[in-house]
Amino acid sequence: MKPYAQLTPAERAAEYARLQAEFESLKSKKLSLNMARGKPSKAQLALAGDIFSLMRSPEDYVSDGIDVRNYGELSGLPAARRLFADLLGCRPEQVFVGGNSSLQLMYDTVSKAYTHGLLHSPRPWCKEETVKWLCPTPGYDRHFKVTETFGFQLIAIPMTEQGPDMDAVEEAVKDPAVKGIWCVPKYSNPDGIIYSDETIRRMAALSPAAPDFTILWDNAYCVHEFEGDFVPFPDMLALCAQAGRPDMVFEFCSTSKMTLPGAGIACFACSEANLAHMEKLLTIQTIGYDKVNQQRHVLFLRDKAHILELMKKHAAIMAPKFRCVVDTLDREVAPLEIASWQRPKGGYFVSLSAMPGTAKRTLALCKEAGVSMTGAGAAFPYGKDPQDTNIRIAPSLPPVEELEEAMAVLCVCLKMAALEKLGL
Amino acid sequence: MKPYAQLTPAERAAEYARLQAEFESLKSKKLSLNMARGKPSKAQLALAGDIFSLMRSPEDYVSDGIDVRNYGELSGLPAARRLFADLLGCRPEQVFVGGNSSLQLMYDTVSKAYTHGLLHSPRPWCKEETVKWLCPTPGYDRHFKVTETFGFQLIAIPMTEQGPDMDAVEEAVKDPAVKGIWCVPKYSNPDGIIYSDETIRRMAALSPAAPDFTILWDNAYCVHEFEGDFVPFPDMLALCAQAGRPDMVFEFCSTSKMTLPGAGIACFACSEANLAHMEKLLTIQTIGYDKVNQQRHVLFLRDKAHILELMKKHAAIMAPKFRCVVDTLDREVAPLEIASWQRPKGGYFVSLSAMPGTAKRTLALCKEAGVSMTGAGAAFPYGKDPQDTNIRIAPSLPPVEELEEAMAVLCVCLKMAALEKLGL
Question: Which residue among A56, A409, B83, B297 has its CA within the 20 to 30 Å range from the CA of B289?
């Protein structure tokens, strides 16, 4: 098949008729397939099976002399702080271990900035006329919604192959109303891009007008390679400190995609001055997070080396799914020149750029044929993709057989939407 | 010994000298005893031992068809919602099951009122000129601190033997700036009082000027009798609904003092309209709480009847400790007429009224002799006890032998402080 743009109107009409028949045949299968969320599969959940039978003997209840079963230790078990420090390359004193959700720690950080202010805030953000927030785009819809719900003005920053467009970021932070930026620096959601050394260096060297400008550095996929070896990644806390602004970054991480999604442990890491400030606020909110689950994770995950072994097992499950997505697109869609896509080596998504103006239509067709995808526009501030082009594919949940069916549907829908756009 | 007030100055001096010698002898023991917090003892923690070995087989991972190991179910496992509904006498649809901390759910409720507003709020509370909050006093220091940290003006409401002074409450809620009240309705912290039917009825029938006035009903000790049988308690949600204001109350509860402190599960319960409003805000904050731990608790606790059996075992450990406290005070302090105290049948505290102006001094002496107690004034708004009289005794943590030593210290310190106050 030639590129669609080169087809005559008659050829397009014939192709569309053929696709319609294929679409009807797929619809008649009454599929119910889900590629909407970065949800691990049953096979991945099984990798954590042993976590349920840990803590058998009384000595397992004690960690560094602390009875993990009783109240206390606001900042988390020292052993859990060491575990995350090992993983992130920072120091245990910089780590606060929380509950089951890193998103919640991010929300709470933004919420406390809003209600009380961060360490260098002249006043709580709720007392500011306007708060603006930088959103590298496409990005993670849940991030954007957190800053949207507090009424911040979201500013889209284009993503490049190297990470956020740093010229745009450096320009934007001259505005004192700009208080921060969302970043997923390794295997960015949804593009799967690893920020380049140059991007990271420039990010750490930012000189923002706002004294409390904060980088929310969501290192969600820090060890989540599914192809190739572990890619080492710099410690952003140290880089910001070296650049003279140790308090400019909060880093986040969780074990949700190492052990159990929604039943793992999460942390934030920041300068010790930031941590002292946050602890003063957090001690009002809670006596402490679930240390029993922290202890389970310390016993199960042990250290970074052991985690990397575990992640190889996740990779063995994930890799064939990503290959299925990319191979299908290469075979079915590439020759038509109606879309382009990333080829990530880690993370949870494949980000696809459909022909402008066709993403919504494609996903509506998918839905009609029983395939759920992340809503069109979700990866953009306020859920609005100005080009209507971005489609996020999340292939982790379905088994490969189902994924093949879902991709067949997606390809037909992409083609139909493109032909409709080109005109029949 | 006669009441201290009836002693001659010479008798007082002799008594004080005798006590000083006793104090020095106690000090020389270099004690390190803790009656500061309502922390369960090791023996109580052991009662939850079986919770670690649940979830052995694949069917244990599934609850109402939901794989508890994966993301989802923002409001909690249906089975966990049913469990708390059974316990509180409300309906499962009214229950939101969260993480390990009911305090955190309370903080988050107040925080969301501040940042976004509650269901009937004309505006977020951060946009209000003044927010006032009613604090039945003496009360729980962590409650008061939550409302203090958001800059609310705390208004002390006297506690009576029947619960908060409802005349004072009814008068206070005429002020539209008064947005809510803290309540620990069963075995109040620290007095151990069960609100009377009359108090509860009047509370539910409040007609506040603020449309978003909210009762934060912390049912922390709903099944926490240590003496006598379980005391049934009305469903406050139903009472408020009957009185025409179904959205006026949020109830809280946790298993921290049933299973594991800081590693249990917590919930809030409210009208379905309130819950729908809160879910819209909570879905931005988190994908969901730890359902694996919810499932562990469902399997371990089963239902209210089974929980009441478990609480009998807690009672068997707690009762001798409370008897030790009250018996020691009866024997050592009662004849001197320098203090009075409650005789609770449940909860975690004994509240003692020392001679006015002696609480701080008593606790300073205790500290000198190695006994940690809750800070003087903690049970009052802003940590300031205007009479300097209230002392909260938390006898749950130490074994009885240690408790006897700690009570010996407390009695000597109470007596010394009283004599100093009366004049030597």
Answer: A56
